[in-house]
Write a structure and sequence with these properties.
By secondary structure, this protein is of the alpha/beta class. The protein has 2 domains: 182 residues, inorganic pyrophosphatase (n-terminal core), CATH 3.90.1640; 110 residues, DHHA2 domain (Diaminopimelate Epimerase, Chain A, domain 1). The chain is 38% helix and 21% strand. The strands form 2 sheets. Strands 3-2-1-4-5-6 form a 6-stranded parallel β-sheet. The chain binds manganese (II) ion (2 copies).
């Protein structure tokens, strides 16, 4: 049997990379030859988690070099490999809205839980497969990352149970302490360029015919990020250069779970309507907003109708 690549979305986060590693191992144990790869370099947070559990960073690709692939943590062509339309997707494991077309029947497993690793945890359990300790560690890290330590509104009881169980297998005695250290490792924005902050965790969406780019950056001090002198200009520049109709950069405080957004676009009233707040000099206050998937995208989609 030919090898199959397993990967998460472009601009990978800890779920995209961590769950690709976990899924590659799972499918290997089920008889499929796999390789976990990443559609971009790991960010600081993911790098911290990989190092902590002594895992190697997967090979980085933009274009799949196998005929068949397995997708995790995404299902949309826009967020995937450049040759998406020329390859065959045999499996999808995901927790995002579904925007996927298939001509053949495929294995598609999606659940509205906080992290794709929570779904992998269930698959390992159902198959009565032991999870190797380092893999449990990176799965734990993925869930902590996606749910901001189980505080995001995307968090479910399944995520909580998976975290408890995975922490034990990974021998992490205090997952809250580990999780905060890991999240903080991803918030050192001082050493990054504006472009890295704007695009490091950005995804494209289509809303009412508009091409909308939404980025998010975690921090322990929102004003520390917003006070960067050229950040706003560069958000606007990114929109113009890449041809987006609208762009929103969400700056999220991981300690108190509040955010502020920088917005540029065709219609400022859309974002004001979406979040029921005023834009002041292209900045909008987003109290209690942390989840792009469950809060930002649905609200903004409504605002743009
Ligand atoms: Mn992700
Ligand atoms: Mn995810």
């Amino acid at each position: 049997m030919n090898k199959q690549l397993v990967f998460g979305h472009a601009n990978p986060d800890t779920d995209a990379i961590g769950t690709a590693i976990a899924a590659a191992e799972y499918f290997k144990r089920r008889g499929i030859e796999t390789e976990a790869v990443a559609l971009g370099n790991p960010n600081d947070e993911t790098r911290f988690a990989l190092n902590y559990f002594h895992l190697k960073c997967p090979r980085v690709i933009n274009k799949a070099d196998t005929e068949e692939v397995i997708l995790v943590d995404h299902n949309e062509a826009k967020q995937s490999v450049s040759n998406f339309n020329d390859i065959k997707v045999t499996h999808v494991i995901d927790h995002h809205k579904i925007n996927f077309q298939t001509t053949d029947p495929i294995y598609y497993y999606a659940k509205p839980v906080g992290c794709t690793s929570t779904i992998l945890f269930e698959l390992y359990q159902n198959a009565h497969l032991e999870i190797p300790s380092p893999i449990a560690g990176i799965m734990l890290s993925a869930i902590i990352s996606d749910t901001l330590l189980l505080k995001s509104p995307t968090t479910t009881d399944e995520d909580r149970q998976a975290v408890e169980a995975l922490a034990k297998i990974a021998e992490v005695s205090d997952y809250k302490k580990y999780g905060l250290t890991m999240l903080k490792a991803g918030t050192n924005v001082d050493k990054h360029s504006d472009h890295e902050i704007i695009d490091g965790d950005a995804k494209s969406f289509e809303m009412n015919g508009r091409k909308v780019r939404i980025g998010q950056v975690n921090t322990v001090d929102v004003n520390d990020v917003l006070s960067r002198s050229s950040l706003k200009d560069n958000v606007k520049k990114e929109m113009i250069d890449k041809g987006y109709d609208d762009i929103l950069l969400v700056v999220t405080n991981i300690i108190d779970s509040n955010s502020k957004g920088i917005f540029y676009g065709k219609d400022e009233s859309a974002v004001e309507k979406a979040f029921n707040a005023k834009l002041i000099d292209h900045v909008i206050d987003l109290p209690g907003i942390v989840s792009r998937k469950k809060q930002i995208v649905p609200n903004l989609t409504k605002g743009m109708e």
